[in-house]
Amino acid sequence: MIHKIYEIKLLREVKRFPPPRHVAFIMDGNRRFAKRRGLPPHVGHIFGSKKAEKVLEWCLDIGVKIVTTYAFSTENFRRSEEEKRSLFRLIKRELKKLIGDRRIHKNRVRVKVVGRKDLLPRDLQDIIEELEEVTQSYDKHHLNIAIAYGGRQELIDAVREILKLVRCGRIHLDEINHRLVERFLYSDNGYESVDLLIRTGGEQRLSNFLPWQTANCLAYFCDVCWPEFRKIDFLRAVRMWQRRVFGNKV
After folding, report:
1. Domain residue limits at 162
2. 198 SS3 class
3. Taking Cα atoms as reference points, which of 243, 218, 246, 231 lies closest to residue 24?
4. pTM above 0.90, yes or no
5. Nearest residue to 230 (alpha-carbon basis) of 13, 54, 47
6. What is the CATH number of the domain that holds 175?
7. Structurally, how many domains does the chain consist of?
8. Buried b or exposed e, range 88-126, using 16+ CB within 10 angstroms
9. Which of 67, 92, 187, 230 is least surrounded, with the fewest CB atoms within 10 Å of its CB?
10. Which residues are identified as catalytic?
11. Tens of pLDDT along 114-162?
């Protein structure tokens, strides 16, 4: 009851000021959450997927326009075949749910998967294509899901595309600037600038996640594992960002 009262108080405070436009999440700690309870790793990821749904609702509730989540990194390909198969099944199931999710359509959320999609199983690629096609006309909110994503690789891929245009004479070297680089990042919906990055799990590092996009953001590190992440934790992070931007008014 005390936590609920505090949550209502925090929400009221947060809604007095504009929210961050773009919030990114490193959803760390699913496996540790499961291990502490004597459960197999894939169960931790199931709990994590449920939490991701709740967090998206929280973001919509306070008016966040862009959300980017770190679902599967390029480094995750080093995990066991069994765990990767389990993760891909879960991701496929969750993306299928998004296709018919009333919250996505009611709030006009455009969903885009960012990363090396060509490295993913063909059936998962098909679901991604369907989801992106179904939501491509939406422009009120944006959800980016980073799958097979690596920040360094994103920048390398952008440089390669720019060099191709230089070689054929369509771009001159003097025209290369930060705006041009941002044109060749994995998404085209303004995700090049993150306002608030939240990482759970107790680690205080970015793990090759959005290195370009997080250059000037506020990073908020939370000790709890992702499935245990509370609305109170989320609102505290948002309030910290608001204090940074609006100062003593908050």
Report:
1. 20-244
2. strand
3. 218
4. yes
5. 54
6. 3.40.1180.10
7. 1
8. bebbbebbeebbebeebeeeebbbbbbbbbeebeeebee
9. 230
10. 28, 76
11. 999 999 999 999 999 999 999 999 999 999 999 999 999 999 999 999 9
